[in-house]
User: Fold this.
Amino acid sequence: MKKKGWQRYHTIWAMLFLGWFVSYIDRTATGPVITWMIDNKVSFLSNVPNPHGLGGLIGSLFFAGFMMNQYPGGSIGDKFGHRTVVVLSILWAGITTLFTGFISGLILFVLLRVLLGLGEGVFYSNDRSYIVYHSPKEKVGLGMGVVITGLSVGLTVATLGVPLLLNAMEPVIGKEAWRSPFILLGVITLISSLLIFKYMKPLSASVQKMNPESPAVKEAYGSAFLLMLKYAAVFIVIIMGIYFAALKMGLSDIAIAFILVCLCPLFIVFLYKTRKSEIRPVLANKNLIFLYVSFIPVIWHLWLYGFWSVSIVKDFGGGALVAAALVASFNGIAGIVGFPIGGKISDMVAGTEYGRRNVLAVMTGLLTVSIFIFAAYVMTGHNNPVIMSIILFVSGLFFFALQPVSHALNAEIAPENNRGAAFGMFNFISEIGAVLSPVVSGVLRDSTGSWGAPLLLDGVLLAASCIFVLCVNRGVTTQMSLTVEK
Assistant:
């Protein structure tokens, strides 16, 4: 007989929702802060010839760190416990965000953004895996959708709240107001890490029934933290080394981003050479590869809007910073509805052949159409804030709904013992989109004087994503062998 009312897995979902919420506020805050700094010619963005390009590069450097720790994060979670890595990730994010509010100069700002990316990069694969282990199998898709709604809420709060906070603090501390979001958000994130540590434990009775070495219940904070530090030390040297070398050589912002992207295939080759038995199961399946690649444009879209949406709306006549942020926030608000709906639909079609794949393809196609509609509307000189808000909201519904479908499909196809690694590889490859999107879009904006070209490019990439989804040709059904709480 099924239990009714609030269950332990609901508490776990709530804590992971909180993790998504604070991590997305921390990373999304950079975009509105950069836009404010460009408008007010503040600090290291004053008198820069290509401010959007430099601002986008800062975002890309964050995502370089974020990308590089995707697979290691899943692997660490498989070894030392998924909850362990989730807690450490949020704690790490809180510390680096807080410190960002107290430093001065471009180099330290970039360094802390890269460190933030490295810390948050381990969250995703462990969050997804923990849901699979501790949710009823018929609610895995719903759980993924509900939990990742925290992304949408965090994205919305940062998009709208950061400009409001900047405007409120400017009369008090002047051009130093850019520091205030990082200080406030750092404190909130640190408190959240303590709450997640306390309340995300599974039930004791369930733990006793599980293998104590299972990543579903294992907790080895010391070992996990040391391994995270080792990876972070290597990656920070590589990323910052590329950044300094590129500056010395006089390379453009976009060239630096493409060099950073080259780290992805090089790291995959390294992993295949050194950990063939561990990585082969998540690379040998062509359906997983198609799914990984299909998500690159999805993440590109996320961070075109997540990083530059306020600037896009503002440039197309959407009003001052706060007014533009209000319009842009409707895209993020859509996720509050889109994520759980997508997860629920995913579960409903899980037992049918090609069910999740077909739903994913349809949602991706509808998202593509909505992007071109928005681009056509603003590029023809229209800027009614109500109509822009409606288009962004509808577009956001499709965008956020497709994500839990893709995640559940990945979990379905991936080998159970390598699920954390599969999620890590999924996000590792897809984060290529995040590394390139802010800087390529920013450079296109500087070179053309309009956000039209970046919007059109976004639509073309999503159309390609739809094709890759249709290449997933295995008729998968719900065959996951899950360890769940009774």
Observations:
- The chain is about 80% helix and 0% strand.
